[in-house]
Amino acid sequence: MRTRRALAAVAALLAVTAAATPATAEPADLAPPGVNDWDCRPSDEHPTPVVLVHGLGGSASTNWAYLGPELVAEGYCTFALTYGRPPLVPPVTGGFAPMEQSAPELAAFVDQVLEATGSERVDLVGHSEGTVMPQYYLKFLGGAEEVRRYVAITPLYDGTTLHDTSELLDRLAEEIPVVGEVPDELCGSCRQFFTDSEFMRELNADGAAVPGIEYTTIMTRYDELVTPYTSGYLDSPDATNIVLQDVCPADLSEHVAMAFNPHVGRLVRNALDPAHAQPVSC
Question: Which of 36, 118, 175, 222 has the most C-beta neighbours closer than 10 Å?
Fold first, then answer.
């Protein structure tokens, strides 16, 4: 029973964006329409380019199929990368490498965006792992000097218990060592999400929030992967914490659906441009 539960929980974690991933293969660098236009120049209305950071199992094209074009239509220079693709993982999915290895990929991508657009800073929008891995970039790779606003969808600053899967995985590794090694081999980031992981302890040693960054966190009470969902609450004077159901009580969106939700889309756009925020039409 414990083994079946552990495997089921790991399968759920690996399927963060499976519902949005097409069955047919596509180029690894494919992005949604209008995203990654390297000739884009920021306007006076939206002077800061936006970098989208996908979740575990996602990619630039799948995770941001909805929100990417929405931001482009609003006039933002919008960019997205696919990161963390180790050799054993299909090229259309990412986020599987250890997060300290993926963070330099994000750093290099942001530098590329800054050079192409002539901007001094970017705004980040992340989903799931895209709310954790960039924290490493901000804290340890100089990212705080290059980022203005950080909008986090289904964040997990305190990690996730995932219904005690960490303990189950440890017991599975003891009972069947070869099986216990598979998750780390295929997904170096998976164990890092757990609340008690060494990665999360290092990341949060001096607090989760990075000084100088304007955070907006958008949580859902129906998050089945970030448990408890309040792991996304950021205790900082520079943070605005939003629970979707406090805005739209009838919205039952869970973890994956949040990246494709029009209500969340409006909250993201309001966070990126608070001076022109508009009411959410539930």
Answer: 36
pLDDT tens string 78-91: 999 999 987 766 66
Q: What is the CA radius of gyration of the chain?
A: 18
pLDDT tens profile 214-239:
999 999 999 999 999 999 999 999 99
Kindly report the CATH number that applies to the domain delimited by 2-19+28-273: 3.40.50.1820
First to last CA, the chain: 42
The pair of three-digit structure tokens given for residue 247, joined into one six-digit string: 């805005």
How far apart are the C-alpha atoms of 188 and 197, rounded to whole Å? 12
Contact (CB, 8 A) for 72 and 78: yes
